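Q: Could you fold this chain for me?
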Amino acid sequence: MVSIAGSKKLKRQMAPLFWGITRKDSRFVVTVRPGGHPKHLAIPTAVFVRDTLKLVTTLREAKSVIYGGKIKVDGITRRSLHHGIGLMDVVELEGIPDVYRLVPKDSMVLQPIKINESEKTKKLVKVTRKTTTRGSKTQLGFHDGHSIISDTKVNVGDTCIMQIPEGKILDAIKLEKGCQVIVTSGINAGHIGKVVEIKEGTFVLPRRALVNIGEREIEIPVDLVMVVGKDKPVIQIE
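A: Sure. Below is the predicted structure, expressed as structure tokens.
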């Protein structure tokens, strides 16, 4: 039998910078297998434990942690070295009191931050798809690959506050003038600002948001921002 999910390894020189790996120790590194998050926007669990958090020093030790069921992502035990951990995912490790959330920070696409124990059951998910299924039911798809049938009144680009691991929507925050957003990619990744205006897309240009960040305003495609609150972030993201 052959694998149909692609290679299990990646050349270190091709790995994203936010993985935090060294480039010259060896030629290859564990890579992300297909999953909820895009491959280039996720960190494999083995790399996260060994290189990002530096809780272990070798891949053998990382395997022991992961295969032993000691790591949970969004409240679900993950036993794969290649499972992709991405934007807004909540990570817990058995025997360690710290709980981590992955967010954009300091111009990096993903960085782990420590969060309060009380916040580990909440996660922000961006609506990326909205379709009507049989029976006139609305199915929502989110940035982390999840999809649910829901009557929640949201549009593509809005953000939902989700209870994990149950996958229940607690509230929704619309992408509109006055809301708070975080930039998820590019040189401004990690910056939080207030939306001044939403500009509709044209045949040439995508839908864009004019965002006030500190003393400057930037115009950025809405695909590169995520709503995090109305007046302030509703959960800890920095």
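A (continued): The longest strand covers residues 122-133.
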